[in-house]
Amino acid sequence: AGGAARPFAAGEGYGGRPGACPPGPPQGLNVRGGGPPWHAALPLTAPRGEWALDFPSTVMGNTGGCNCSAGPTPPERQRLDADASGAQLPSLDTWEFNALDLNPEQLGVASLVLLQAFFWGCGGADPEVLPCFICAIRDGYLPNPYHNFAHAVDVLQTVIRLGKFMPWEELISPAARFALLVAALSHDIGHPGFSNVYLVDVRDEMASRYNDVSPLENMHCSRLFEIVQQSQCSVLAHLSRRELAHVRKNIIDAILHTDAANHSYVTAALEMVYRENAGVFDASKDGKGLTMEQVDILSTDENRALVSRAMLAGADVTNQAKPWSVAYAWATLLRQELTAQGDRERQLGLAVLPMTDRNALGFAEAHIGYLHTTVAPFLSAEARLFHAWQELTATLAVNIREWGTRLSKETEVGQSCDSRIELMCDMLTNLRTSPIEEKKVQAPPGPPDPVPVEESSPLLAAKKEPRPSVDSQEEAGGPVTEPCSEPSCPEGPPQPFVREIRRWREASAASSGQQRELVLLYVVSDDIVTQSPSGQPVLFRYTIQAENSGTSPSSPTN
C-alpha cells in the first residue's frame, strides 16, 4: 500500500514473492509466530517477518489449494505520532493530495491526522485507541494494485473534503460524521482484488456466506466490527448504546452502497431529490454552503442516509475527478487489477467481460466506458444538490477530454467520433439539465407541477397518475388494453430515456461462423419509479439504425 504505481514485474507475485498466488481473504485474526497480537496497543514495534496473518489453504475458489505462503507481508508497525510526523506529510486539505506518494507509515499518520479532531469532537478521549484502530485497519488491507490502504486513505481524505464544502455540520451529527469516516477508512478492508461477480462465478466461500449479495461489502463490514469489538481498538466505545446502534446501522448502510451494483440506485435517488426540489437547489448560485430550504429538504431521515451513501460511494470514485496526474495514476492501477481478474477468469474458463479483458478494449476505451456508466452520472447527480462540489465535475470534464485524446491515439479515430465524450462533458458542465439526452414530453392536462418541467426533471419531464394494471382491469370487468407505447399517443406513457452503454459482438452459440450483436442499454422511466415494488412492464419501441444492424436503409428494424 502506498507504493509506486507500477505493474508487477515478470515473475513477481503478490506480496513481493516470486510466483506467489493472488492472496485470498484472511479467514480470521489469528497470529502465528512470536510477535504481539495484531491489535495490540501501541507502541507496535514487531520486526517485519516475525508474524503473519493465517490464510486458508483454499482461496478464491482455487480448490486445488496453494502452498506458496502467499499471504501479504504486513508493513512494519511503527508508533503513529501525528505531532512528530505530521510535518513530513503533504497538505491533506487539497484536491491535489495523492495517497500513492506516501509509504505505509505515512499513510497511517495521515489517517491519524485526518481522524483525530473528529474522534475528539464526538467524545473520544483515549489517546491510544485511535492509533491502534488505524494500525489494525491498515494491516487488514491486502497489497492489491488498487484496492489497498492507500485507496482507503484517499477515500477518507475525500469524504472530509466533501463534507467541508457541503458543509456537513448542518446535516450530520458529530458522532455520525466520525462513523462515516470510520466507514471510509475501512470500506475495502480485506479486499482480495477480485469483484463480487468473480466471487459469485467461482462459488467462493465468501459469496456463499453472504448468499451472493454484495459479498465483499458484507465482509468489509464484518471485518470492521470484529476490530472495533477489540478493547484496544474500540473507537466507538465512548458512544451511548443508542448512538452506537444508530452509527452501526449507518456504517453498514454506507459501506453496502459502495457496491458498484448499488451505484445506480444512489444516482437515481439523488436525481429524484433534485427533480422534486429543482427550484430550491437551482436558486443557490454562489456555490457556497446550503440554504435553509435545502437543509430542511435534506434533513429527513431518508435523505440523511442518502447523503451519507452519496458521500462515501462518491468518494470511492472521485479519484477520477482530481488533477490529471492523480486520476491517471489511479486509473492505471484499476486497469491493472481488472485485467488481472480477466486473466484469471480466462484461466478458469469463465466469461471475461470487456472491462476485464486486456485484449478486448484498449486502456482509454475501457476507462471511458467506466467514466460514462459510473463516475460521470454519479458525480453530476451529486453536484446538482451540492454546488460547492462542482469544482470536481469541472476537473472530471477536463480529464474526460484528455481520455478522448488518448482514445483517438489508440484507435486512430478522433474523439469527436465517440459521442460519449461530449455527452459526459455536457452532463458535467450543464448541471441544470438531465444527464441523459432526453426528448421533452408535454405534461398531460391538469394542475401544473410545482416546479417547471424544463428544470425539474433530470430523469423524466412529465408526471402522471400510475395507470391501472392488467389484473385490476380484469377484476373491474373492463376490456384489457395494452398500453400504447407511441410517444404521440396522448393516453400513452411518456417515453423512457434510453442511453446506449456498450455494443459488442460475439460468436453465436446457435450457428458456427455467425455472430450476434449485443447492446447494453440504460433505461430510465417514471413508470419504474411510480409503480409499486412488484412493478409493471414498461413497453417501448426502439429502432436499430441500418449502419449498426446490417439491414438495408429502407427497412429499419423495430
Summed up:
The chain is mainly alpha-helical and 558 residues long.
Core attributes:
globular, 558 residues, disordered N terminus, two-stranded antiparallel sheet, 21 helices, mainly alpha
Task: Please provide a written account of the structure.
The protein has 558 residues and is mainly α. The chain has helices at residues 82-85, 104-121, 129-140, 149-165, 174-186, 196-201, 205-209, 215-228, 241-256, 263-276, 278-282, 292-298, 301-317, 324-347, 363-385, 390-411, 419-429, 453-456, 470-475, 526-530, 546-549, and strands spanning 31-33, 51-53, 497-507, 515-524. A hairpin with a 7-residue loop joins strand 3 (497-507) and strand 4 (515-524). Mean pLDDT is 73; it is low at 1-78, 433-493 and 547-558.
Describe how the helices and strands are arranged.
Layout: E1 31-33, E2 51-53, H1 82-85, H2 104-121, H3 129-140, H4 149-165, H5 174-186, H6 196-201, H7 205-209, H8 215-228, H9 241-256, H10 263-276, H11 278-282, H12 292-298, H13 301-317, H14 324-347, H15 363-385, H16 390-411, H17 419-429, H18 453-456, H19 470-475, E3 497-507, E4 515-524, H20 526-530, H21 546-549
Antiparallel strand pairs: 1-2, 3-4
Would you report the number of β strands? 4
Would you tell me the structural class of the helices and strands?
Answer: mainly alpha
Mean pLDDT: 73
Strand coverage percent: under 5%
Spans of at least 5 consecutive residues whose pLDDT stays below 50 are: 1-78, 433-493, 547-558
Helix content: 40-55%
User: How many DSSP helices?
Assistant: 21
Order of helices and strands: EEHHHHHHHHHHHHHHHHHHHEEHH
**Termini separation (Å)?**
52 Å
Shape: globular
Quaternary state of the chains? single chain
Strand sequence of the main sheet, in spatial order?
1-2
What can be said about the biggest beta sheet? Answer: 2 strands, antiparallel
Radius of gyration from CA coordinates: 25 Å
